[in-house]
Amino acid sequence: MSTNNSGKKIDVAYVAQLARLELTGEERVRLAGQLDRILEYVDQLRQLNVDGIEPTAHAIPQVNVFRSDEARPGLPLKEALKNAPQRMNDLFVVPKVVED
Amino acid sequence: MAHRLSLREAAENIRQRKLSSVELVQALHTRIRKIEPKLEAFLHDDFDLAVKQAAQRDAQPADGPLHGVPVAIKDNISSAGRPCTCASMMLKDYVAPYDATVIRKLETAGAVVFGRLNMDEFAMGSSTENSAFQKTKNPWDLARIPGGSSGGAAAAVAADECFGALGSDTGGSIRQPAAFCGCVGLKPTYGRVSRFGLVAFASSLDQIGPVTKTAYDSALLLNAISGVDPMDSSSLPQPVPDYTKYLGRDIKGLKLGLPKEYFIEGLDPRVKQVIDQAIRHFGSLGAKLVEISLPQTPHAVATYYVIATAEASSNLARYDGVRYGLRTEKPGDVLDMYFRTRAEGFGPEVKRRIILGTYVLSSGYYDAYYLRAQKVRTLIRRDFEKAFTQCDAILTPTSPTVAFKFGEKTDDPLQMYLADIYTIAVNLAGICGISVPCGFVEKPARLPVGLQILGPAFGEPIILQVAHAYEQSTPWHLEKPNL
Predict the structure, then answer these.
(1) What is the pTM of this model?
(2) Which of A1, A5, A9, A15 to mutate to test the interface with B (most CBs of B within 10 A)?
(3) DSSP state of B316
(4) CA distance B143 to B153
């Protein structure tokens, strides 16, 4: 685990795989050092007693925000495709994902 | 000289038919052409679109409160037919296909949407140095950063390149640049303003808010953009008062809290001197100053950078090269397309936060980092709830320093993060805050200092009242940079 692109705390190459993010060797080394220091700083949270404390996901919690289940117009096809990197026949074109 | 008007004055001039909307847009455009080569606050010039809209306004009765008044927009808020790049290579050629709710609301109030403002890439940063396209300068000293991430908004307002702007604030991104550039920046209560059409960074923390020349202008813009929105289920149905009605009310007898944890080491003594003077001024206006405690303050930065990066890593997963934005040239297969598109599209700070956020959410670390940070967030909220039983509003510095020089902190991300200490707890707690100009540090350059006024959830009336009272009895908001 302790290659030069893996910090004491974080294995940058592994996490970059999870994040679908290609990093150069130089980026991995730099990030490992920086993120190790940041995570050492964040470790102060481990000293706190949070037993029985509810986590906060949203500061002003709301429950059951419903809207009526009615069809309404969405973005027109032409608009939705306008920013597509590649399109054909009103579809997004992507590299082949199924085997022959 | 029309560019020097406040938002309120611009609106009054139009109502009284002294100036037309087209004339206002042209005045700003002239100013922008003169100043922009030095300042670089705007990413896109949509002058033609703005003039067209202004001409329409001039043909209509001036019934909206912002009728005919141009308002500039941070480049992460969607406005149909205009670029929305988030200052990222990832969205370099992206054109927004729909309007953010705040844009619709501005237009309903009669405003003209004009100009797209520079920012840190995807709103991640405190200096606007993370823009992939250009470096916006601080109008008070061109060798210094304007703050961030809404650095373009604050610089443009301070330099009279616009009458007012909309920014976004996830951890101080409206208030800190407003402080550094000497203008007024308000972060509304979470849920006060719809986030629909705001490019998501950290969804439980993001809010859109005004950057303006005065507290009154801040109230005017907040009036226009507030309110529940069926397109944003986290927006709240609280009624929207006329915020300008609270301005001019006496602050005698109001209790203003001073958190003892905010006035310790790390606060630049020159900034402290200016803040202390502002606090004494509130005493002379008849406010009661009370010491309060926010004991979780030392843990706010750590909590924030776990939660904000976790949410960012999830939100930014959408940039995969499939439906919009950048796609790498000649991808081999789908995975190769994801990996290389993201490598080419994101800058260093965004990559850093994606990796950190992915790590704290990953199997084996979720409980230790993300869940724990959410629990500490509860403690931070409770700190403020308790504090607001002892005072009506809280006074703090907006930033521990004045604007720093380009490159001064870019090699040390942790130092950059630590400087957010006074602003980020506000987003974690979901409450509201405003930064107002409160004086200057004179050496080595004349640089503005911001005073932050915090209120409880939906306490916008009180912070605007306090901000306006301070502003009306001090000269700071009238000072202009020498450009």
Answers:
(1) 0.97
(2) A15
(3) G
(4) 18
